[in-house]
């Protein structure tokens, strides 16, 4: 049974640029330079968003010379998907439940 959805993960995915980054990384592993080109964001802004995604466990890093590559961690999104699926099932089950007003 679901107890709660990870608020850090929701916060990390709640920003439009971070969601764009996740969408791009779902297709391929990219370095910061690629992400700057794809999003049009400033490198420092992008690095801050990537830090949030790393800390939330959404992406992994891979150093490669002077570049850092970012890879999406599908298990983080799969876990979130399972949590939301459990919430949806709970809502279906409880659809007829209504607490009486005092």
Characterise this structure.
This protein is α+β, with helices and mostly antiparallel strands and 102 residues long. The protein contains five helices and three strands; from the N terminus they run ααβααββα. It has helices at residues 7-13, 16-25, 32-39, 43-55, 74-93; strands at 30-31, 59-64, 67-72. It has a three-stranded antiparallel beta sheet with strand order 1-3-2. The chain is elongated, with a radius of gyration of 18 Å.
| Structural shape | elongated
> Averaging pLDDT over every residue, what do you get?
89
Percent in helix:
55-70%
> Kindly, what is the distance between the CA atoms of the first and last residues, rounded to a whole number of angstroms?
29 Å
Set out the fold topology.
Blueprint lengths: L6 H7 L2 H10 L4 E2 H8 L3 H13 L3 E6 L2 E6 L1 H20 L9
Brief sketch in words of this structure:
The chain is α+β, with helices and mostly antiparallel strands and 102 residues long. The protein is built from 5 helices and 3 strands; from the N terminus they run H-H-E-H-H-E-E-H.
Keywords:
elongated, alpha+beta, 3-stranded antiparallel β-sheet, 5 helices, single chain, 102 residues, 57% helix, 3 strands
């Amino acid at each position: 049974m679901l107890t709660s959805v990870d608020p850090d993960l929701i916060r990390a995915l709640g920003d439009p640029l971070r969601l764009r980054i996740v969408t791009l990384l779902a297709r391929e592993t990219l370095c910061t330079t690629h992400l700057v080109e794809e999003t049009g964001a400033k490198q420092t802004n992008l690095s801050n968003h990537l830090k949030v995604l790393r800390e939330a466990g959404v992406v992994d890093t891979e150093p490669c010379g002077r570049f850092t590559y970012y890879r999406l961690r599908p298990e983080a999104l799969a876990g979130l998907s399972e949590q939301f699926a459990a919430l949806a099932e709970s809502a279906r089950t409880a659809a007829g439940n209504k607490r009486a007003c005092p």
